[in-house]
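User: Sequence for Protein DENND6B isoform X2 below. Tokens please.
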Amino acid sequence: MDPFDSSDSLEGPSKTAAKNADAPVPWSRFSAWLECVCVVTFDLELGQAIELVYPHDVKLTEKEKTSICYLSFPDSYSGCLGDTQFSFRLRQSVGRSSSWFGHEDAYNRDAPVTLQKEQAHFHGYVYFRQVKDASVKRGYFQKSLVVVSRLPFGNLFHSLLQVIAPEYFEKQEPCLETVCNEIDQWPAPVPGQTLNLPVMGVVMQVQIPPKVETLGGSPVKQPQTENLLPAPTVLPSVHELDLFKCFQSVLIHMQMLWELMLLGEPVVVMAPSPTVSSETVLALVSAIAPLRYFGDYRPYFTIHDSEFKEYTTRTQAPPNVILGVTNPFFIKTFQCWPHIIRLGDLKMSGDLPKQVKVKKLAKLKTLDTKTGIYTAYKTFLHKDKAFIKRLLKGIQKKRPSEVLSAFLRRHLMEQTESFILPLERYLESLMPPQRSVSPWKTPPQIRSFSQDEFMKTLEQAGPQLTLKGDWTGLYRRFFRSPNFDGWYRLRHREMSQKVECLHLEAICAADLLTWNNDKSEVEIVDLILKLREKLMRARKHQLPVKEELLERLEQSIQTIISSLPEDLQTLLQRQ
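Assistant: Structure tokens for Protein DENND6B isoform X2:
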């Protein structure tokens, strides 16, 4: 009997259980995309309250429900009349069980690091409606439809809300149940595939970008429209924002903002509305793509947030977090923070959006503080004047916003890649040579990262050609940031997996039977157990090795077992 072949070992009830396991689990497709859909309303006695959660059996903790309630309504200072869309991000309660752990390895393995599912946070996407209504005591209808997900797909979920929210506000719960049942029929979110997502008579067609193995790899192909009825609405991206629109009043300060994000500095964005607040924070986080931002960030943050005290304490330095706020009260609260971006309503200066100025933190005193970037930060790198000139020229020529946004995104991405490339090259030099990987020894170690050694490599392979400035100082500061720590941990894990794969390949290429000839039974059994553990680890952690390689190793284990005495064979087959 093959211990890895489950077909022969399933008899009676266990075989029935296996068949049942193949049946679709209720809401499994829904939960691959969403955690739940909530309706938040304003109750005169209770304030904000969750009116409905769908599916009904979703278990949100009381703390999560309270956070969703407060984060789903603009505060009274925003004066949002009509329909408003914005996003928030909240910390998951400690110790909660997750509904998607069976799927996350496959999705996260194939998705770019910036689009991976969150393990400790939820993203909330809000469609808020506030309209005059004489039948309500306060004179206003106030309600939010909220999509909660672990996926950072802002474009997709806001597009989904634009389809379902207006209809829901008219038809209420039956409509929501229908929508959730439709989402439960969606295909799995597989990166690289064109996905057709039908909802309420509309088909949204999307493509989640696949992981690109090398920096600056080939762009994702645009999905082809199939012969579908109704014709699909093609979303160009599941996540990308209009960067030009988000940054149009701070364009001349992009170099500073890029550095603040790269270094994971504490930043507060004070905006006139939750929409501007959340879009600006998410745009800042995306400014260092393809590098993932590893600090905390809250696109919309209120004084009712459960982390309010943690983030506003003056007894310690501000944490590595970006907060988006709309309440002027925060101006006083965050006076000790090192970087505050105060945004207002967009003003024009001729053909160009008026640019805010960098100001001293000491001037941040009153509730009517003027727009500006309040910081004492001095950039390590010089401004790219040629880039700013081309961007301003594009605005004067009235180029479309999406064209200017693509130009801005490409510039930021190229700058991040220039910064990361020397680090990637240095990491490659830490890998053990392939010839040192032997099937008869434990895998060789990856050399430790030495900051000083890396700095010496900059003289020959640094990024100085792209932008002039103090690159050495920028790297040294980066090494103290959460972004370096997160990036290095991730890359080290990938490198360890690569060494593990090379070791597996070496074992599969070796003549294990000949090696056994002069070995004792104890040594052979020890080898079998080690090979089985290696095989199990490769499958559990989904190492990037071909399945035929693992099958060959399985076959080798079986061949070695069959060469042993029968009593030992029986014992090993049972394990």
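Residues 1-22, 99-104, 214-223 have pLDDT under 50 and may be disordered.
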